[in-house]
Amino acid sequence: MSKQSTNHIMVMEPVNFHENEQTRDSNPYQHDDKKSADKIQKKALLEFRTFRDLLVENGIAMTTVQGQMGCPDDIFCNNWISTHENNRMILYPMVAQNRQKERRPELIQMMRNTYKDVQDFTAHEQHGKALESTGALCMDRINRIAYQAISSRSHPELGALWCQMNDYEHVPFETENKGQPVYHADVVMWIGTDIAGVSSECLKSRDIIDHLKQKREVIEFTNEQMEAFCGNSLEVINKGGERVLVMSQGGYKKLDKAQKAQLDKHYKTIIQPDIRTIEYYGGGSARCMLLELF
Q1: Predicted pLDDT of residue 1
Q2: Which of 55, 127, 171, 222 has the fewest CB atoms lying closer than 10 Å?
Q3: Residue range of the domain that includes 232
Q4: Are the C-beta atoms of 290 and 2 separated by less than 8 Å?
């Protein structure tokens, strides 16, 4: 049986982090630069390194790659690639041109050394269709179900094609917050081995809640909690084989006592990085920064 989570994570150290004007239209959670780009980069770099070290201290195997100039969002390295068991990796089409540049040939070649079976969806960019990896598709790897939040960065036809090619059940759903679809599924929800978290207030239908409850316990978040990135979390495995949840400090602080108690039933450890600069300017959080290596 496939496993839901991995014990090996890749992260990308930022060299040019700031608010990305090319993704502003679809991501209302990012904010305009109000300080110099140099100060923002320095703060983001400190937050990144502290977060990475926190993961290492908690027994998570880490691979760190250097970012590049001209790619302000490459710290969110889970959006252009995903990896899977049986040495498969998948490359994805993205909307913003400066995000397309994140698919660097040398990184792809590095990954090909391990992942020999490659699926490449990037040609769909020529037709204006995007599917931004585990941002677009929240995967129940155990039961082979892909939950897809439909948006300009997550085309339903590509989601259906992805599921057909990878033998997954396709479960698309629609959202609305701040007057538009939530740009990524991984802002709305996360799936662990025994529990899932979903920002249910933004859903246009509760069908996926019912669908998730067939397999797992479900914890629900409000829109206010989603905007603090409670939904942008990831279950990982430490070197002792323990399941650990990663949720930003800002997100965790927004949980109420009952929600925290619900999580405590499943996780002895909740890693809580303080990444407020990255969240404020980037409009993404902890999960977006973590590329799972299976």
Answers
A1: 76
A2: 127
A3: 8-292
A4: no
Cβ–Cβ under 8 Å, residues 288 and 135: yes
Tokens found for residue 66: 């250097």
Residue 1 lies in a domain: no
Residue 257 makes CB contacts below 8 A (sequence gap 6+) with none
CATH code where residue 32 lies:
3.75.10.10
Q: Model confidence over 233-288: pLDDT tens digits?
A: 999 999 999 999 999 999 999 999 999 999 999 999 999 999 999 999 999 999 99
Positions of E strands within 150-242: 169-173, 189-191, 195-199, 217-221, 234-237
CA-based radius of gyration for the chain? 17
Is 3 part of a structural domain of the chain? no
Q: How far is CA 127 from the centre of its chain?
A: 24
Angstrom distances, CA of residue 16 to CA of 39, 66, 232, 284: 11, 11, 22, 16
pLDDT tens, position by position, 10-33: 999 999 999 999 999 999 999 998
Whether residue 2 lies inside any domain: the answer is: no
Tally of domains in the chain: 1
